[in-house]
Amino acid sequence: MLSALGAGCGDDASPADSGAELDAGTANDAALRPDAQPIIDLGVRVDAGVPADLGPAADLGPAADLGPAADAGAPGDAAVNTDAGMRPDLGSPTDAGSACAPITTFETGLQPMREIHVATNGANAGGCGASGSPCATLDYALGLAEAGAAVILHAGTYGGGAFASNLLGTSAAPIWIGGAAGEARPVIAGGSQALHLSGARYVVLHDLEISGQSANGINVDDGSNYDNPDAARFIVFRNLYIHDVGTGNNDCLKLSGLDDFWVLDSRFERCGGASSGSGIDHVGCHDGLLARNVFADNAAAGNAIQCKGGSRNLEIRANVFDDPGARGVNMGGSTGFQFFRPSLSMSAPNSEAEDIRVIANVFIGSPAPLAFVGCVDCLAANNTIVNPTNWVMRILQETTSTSEYQFLPASNGRVVNNIIYFERSDLSTFVNVGGNTSPATFEFSNNLWYAHDAPGMSNPGNALPVSETGGLYGMDPAFTNAGADDFRISSGSPAAAAGLAESALTHDADGRCFGTPPSMGAFEVP
Hints:
Distance between the termini: 39 Å
Number of helices: 2
Number of strands: 35
Radius of gyration: 22 Å
Shape: globular
Strand content: 25-35%
Largest sheet: 13 strands, parallel
Helix content: under 10%
């Protein structure tokens, strides 16, 4: 979402952002349980022992460990990190090549050709930027950056408000913006936004701490070039810590009209408020991968991740959502017609979102961990969902057809191979279905449902919009240690090898390849 205009459902109109939209909505959230309790112990899930080629960043531990990243590195060091993103051939970020390939990005194997240093004791002058004569502000340094440059912020606290338009790297010479190797993360504090990039290409944002902004933490948009997929493209966000941003319809990371991007190994906390705002908000974004991130302590937010405004082909994989807000992942939403990317068609059906895939994530808490909101052909597979506080998921339609534009209803959603571990006394119902949707087109297959307070009441039965095939009910998944938030399983679990073969599966939440057949839930059996 957008600027500091507070909560509510009116159009956002901040001049700092071309991706204004309607709030993804509290209109359908009136039935939230008042007794929902946040879960704040991040426990073992955050240091989940991922194999070396897919491991979470060293700083993604519990909040107390969110100091400087051990690899908060010089761009040269970061650029050769082969677990930073996906595909060296510059295809879609969600086209991994082989089914269980390591994640690589366009920056993999590259080194900067020039360094522009920034320090709190620097001075902005024409000749600044050398290590011995650093610039004083990020905003000034960005004006010196060109393809192949690395803007290196040294440890310290900097004011927000940096802006750059048409910051253009290339596939062979990206532009890096981030912290210095071996130093604490630099902090960008305050301001309306810490950093706003408009019309950027081939840029890597890494190893930064962002906090205290009134509108958005980081904002990347297409400069209102809504129908140009090249306007903002090829951006990597990695090893970021963004927190305490806004108090209403505000986002930690705001993305509008961005194509071919990666959000990796980052942490988002306390984004927005008053049941509004997002950890990451997508408006008309396409071909993205969000992997190995942590969303925590966001009970006051609208959601952790939102994908709407014509968003398409986004994969949300192997993340941890701990108390992520009213809706953990909002697949779709409600967007002002003028903000769709590409622009709405008057001759063909439109949709808020298509082909959003939520795979191998862990959800703890939330009134509704999953929401299909005007989303078409979307998938929730192999997630582990723990203690939702009102519904397991919602099927809603917030943008409906008019005399001018036709909108497809929420339809053809698939809910496959998930483990739902819940207290039956906390749920008002299993699936909340709203009007103007097409729930009969959904598929529920091979999910394990376990009410740990009343195993005999585990089966959702007719509470699902369609009959489920291959489901398991009332069977304890036998987590390694649920009390310590370790939701891995062993070969003795009923979920082991009980899943349905699914072509979209790649890595589990530990970076391990899924078996054949796969297990249910976010973790494959070792």
